[in-house]
Design a protein that fits this description.
The protein is of the alpha/beta class. It is built from 13 helices and 14 strands. It has a domain of 188 residues: Rossmann fold. The radius of gyration is 23 Å and the shape is globular. 43% of the residues are buried.
């Protein structure tokens, strides 16, 4: 796609989404830290597997600040139904069928932490029942379901908060504030990766092999886009946040090159998301090497942010005690690279040799943003008002996650289809 085409797509997209990706970071921090109300949010939790359990534990850990009263839980898998009861005790009602939970009297809100393919119908039923929803990322397995969820949110006016906790994490808030204040100069490139080294499988009871697809839903195309919806969705969200807009196109390749164990989702993906101004977001993820771990890198002519590790690298850092060139020379002599010491040679200060460890972005207690996010959700529920722009931001992260999957599946450059454009929003 040429630059003119990019520009046209950008203008079209900007008109459609208005300012919805211009998320005011400070507001999230304020929301999480401002004084709460005496009223507790009556909460139901649907899906108490790994994430549902974690969210309940975080809610319990909020102590005096806990704005929730968990009044009901639901899981349709017996061991996790029992786990839910153990976690919340006898004060909350437990259900196997989420529709029964939605009938709970005076229920304000639900958390939906079911597998991806089980988000849309539960979320839409909850919104239609007049209940606010916190739905784990990504939104849905298909574009059509994602759009139906958006329509239900606008139709009912009820909150649909998508679980992207980085938006509430102080190190991300501070880092993105630096980006938006121009500390890096204009963003010219972004890179992110999520590398793990394990088979990503959950244990299936030996006497119940028929539960394989239900328990390992992440590994099957019908239920999940694997690395894309489970991991990349978070980092696509961060890239859009940094650029204050969404991409105009995505291309990519995916393969199963290591875990040939019957799984259907790729264990190795590489994509390029392009933005209208020519910025590329280069992404990769795999499950066969963990050396580089997890990172989002935002780069501009004045500096680089590594968000996950809370570090900023100025392009022209404060002077080290010994200049980098001298350090390089000493290193090279020690390694025996030079037979004689060159005087004023042009090639002995490689660009890579920067002995500078960067600067910490945000001080303070480490958090992944989840407690802050839950508290902000509670405040929005009590105010009976969505946080402006937050839903649209989560929507576009989910949509571009699925478009990345489509680009890999079809071997094509993919753009935003017309039917996914938000034209009828009410709370931007
Ligand atoms: N924000 C994050 O960092 C983060 C981290 C992990 C997972 N997640 C998301 O959380 C969601 C759940 O992931 P998980 O790892 O907990 O999966 P999981 O398989 O461990 O848990 C899902 C639970 O939902 C239950 N369930 C399935 N269908 C149901 C239904 N119709 N009614 C009631 N319960 C039902 C299952 O029995 C299971 O207990 C996914 O969308 C995932 O992407 C988000």
């Amino acid at each position: 796609m040429n630059n003119k085409q990019h520009r046209r797509d950008f203008i079209k997209n900007s008109a459609i989404i208005g300012g919805s990706l211009l998320l005011p970071g400070k507001m999230f921090a304020n929301l999480a830290n401002s004084p709460g109300s005496d009223r507790k949010v009556k909460l139901g939790v649907i899906g108490v597997g790994s994430r549902g359990k974690y969210l309940i534990q975080i809610i319990h850990s909020l102590g005096e600040d806990n704005p929730f009263e968990i009044v009901a839980v639901c899981d349709n898998y017996e061991p996790n139904y029992q786990q839910a009861i153990k976690l919340v005790g006898s004060k909350a009602k437990a259900y196997y069928d989420y529709r029964k939970l939605l009938e709970t009297k005076d229920l304000d809100a639900v958390i939906v932490a079911t597998p991806l393919y089980q988000h849309a119908h539960i979320v839409i039923d909850a919104l239609d029942a007049g209940i606010h929803v916190f739905c784990e990322k990504a939104m849905a397995r298909t574009l059509e379901d994602t759009k139906k969820m958006a329509d239900a949110h606008y139709r009912t006016g009820k909150i649909l908060h998508i679980g992207h906790q980085r938006l509430f994490d102080p190190k991300y808030l501070k880092g993105l504030e630096m980006v938006h204040q121009g500390k890096l100069g204009p963003i010219t490139q972004m890179r992110a990766y999520w590398h793990r080294n394990n088979d990503w499988r959950r244990k299936v009871p030996a006497d119940k092999p028929e539960l394989e697809r239900q328990i390992n839903w992440r590994l099957y195309n019908e239920y999940s886009c694997g690395l894309m919806t489970e991991l990349a969705s978070h980092q696509i969200q961060v890239a859009n946040w940094a650029k204050k807009t969404m991409p105009v196109s995505v291309r990519g390749v995916g393969s199963i090159n290591y875990w040939k164990d019957g799984r259907e989702v790729y264990d190795n993906v590489a994509l390029i998301y392009s933005y209208a101004d020519g910025t590329q977001f280069i992404y990769d993820s795999m499950t066969s090497n963990r050396h580089y771990g997890l990172q989002e890198q935002i780069m501009g002519p004045k500096g680089t942010l590594e968000l996950e590790t809370n570090t900023y690298f100025a392009e022209n850092p404060p002077k080290p005690e010994k200049p980098a060139g001298i350090l390089q020379l000493i290193t090279d002599i020690e390694r025996g690279i030079f037979e004689t010491v060159p005087i004023g040679g042009a090639s002995w200060l490689p660009e890579t040799e920067v002995k500078y460890k960067g600067e910490t972005v945000a001080e303070g207690k480490a958090t992944d943003g989840t407690p802050e996010q839950l508290k902000a959700f509670a405040k929005a529920v009590i105010a009976d008002k969505p946080i402006p722009g937050l839903f649209e931001h989560g929507y576009h992260a989910s949509v571009w996650t699925l478009l990345g999957q489509e680009a890999m599946d079809n071997g094509q450059v993919v753009t935003l289809p017309d039917f996914m454009k938000l034209t009828n929003t009410s709370n931007q």
